[in-house]
Design brief:
281 residues; mainly alpha; 13 helices; disordered N terminus
């Protein structure tokens, strides 16, 4: 993550006018300067340790002569500590350590609330966490870990992102169903196309493969159910033709006739017309 730059308030390495408590404020300044150098070097873990220690010590100093310096330390810590957590979170996300990234984004919010930083809000952190979940879910989906992908993307509460993952998974199963059908592995085609419809109930292509595969397995009632869903989603000559065949094979000539009449594809019309002579009486 790109380092966030701050305008650091001037602090003095040596303090000579704070009276008896000069040693205390000098120790705090030294602690802060260590944290500031770590922050500049993008060593954010060390920066957090040193800056939090400096801020806690600064708050305990009540000497009025040190008030301006104490306020400067507090102001810088207010910015640097939350952003250090956020920077660590970004690095963890880029390394694929998504759960750790989420943890540190939440820590950045907690630090912002603790130190009064208004730039880091619950909404901004939530957006970053959701972006992490989206990347994690996409990786799960690409690796075929579909249950984990859905579980992760659901955490975002983003219906559009959830729908996108579901459709990606459905498309994967649909491709496998098409391959199985071409290989005449109809049981596998049924299994894969059913899985496709579970993730995308509006996939007419999945229902078409499901219906045709059921017909090849002579499970005509199941074929009819699948193909009826197919034509309800999108009318096509091919779907009507196979639906008519399924009705004909299951003994429902009236329904077969109705659907053969809807076939207007030149490649299928001849067969449809021939079957109509049988079922349309």
């Amino acid at each position: 993550m790109k380092q966030v730059k701050f305008l650091l308030l001037p602090l003095f390495a040596l303090v000579i006018s704070f009276g008896a408590k000069a040693q205390d404020i000098n120790a705090v300044i030294e602690q802060f300067n260590k944290g500031s150098e770590a922050f500049k070097a993008e060593n954010y873990q060390q920066a957090i340790v040193d800056l939090e220690a400096a801020c806690a010590a600064a708050i305990s100093i009540t000497d009025e002569d040190a008030a301006e310096t104490v306020e400067g330390i507090k102001t810088n810590c207010k910015n640097m500590i939350p952003f250090s957590y956020s920077a660590i979170a970004g690095s963890l996300a880029s390394e694929g350590k998504y759960d750790d990234a989420v943890e540190y984004f939440n820590k950045s919010l907690a630090a912002a609330e603790k130190y009064g930083n208004t730039e880091i809000t619950k909404e901004s952190v939530s957006d970053k966490i959701n972006a992490v979940y989206s990347v994690q879910a996409n990786n799960y989906a690409k690796n075929g870990e579909f249950a984990k992908a859905v579980e992760t993307i659901t955490k975002t509460g983003n219906n559009e992102a959830i729908d996108k993952i579901n459709k990606y998974i459905a498309a994967t199963y649909l491709k496998e169903a098409q391959t199985a059908q071409k290989a005449k592995e109809y049981k596998t085609a049924v299994e894969k196309s059913k899985q496709a419809t579970e993730y995308n109930p509006e996939s007419e292509s999945a229902y078409l493969i499901l219906g045709v595969s059921y017909s090849q397995l002579k499970q005509y009632k199941n074929a009819v159910d699948a193909l009826e869903k197919c034509v309800a989603l999108k009318e096509s000559a091919q779907a009507y033709y196979y639906l008519a065949v399924a009705y004909q094979q299951s003994g429902n000539n009236a329904k077969a006739c109705q659907n053969y009449k809807k076939v207007n594809d030149p490649k299928l019309s001849a067969n449809a017309q021939a079957q109509m002579k049988i079922v349309c009486k």
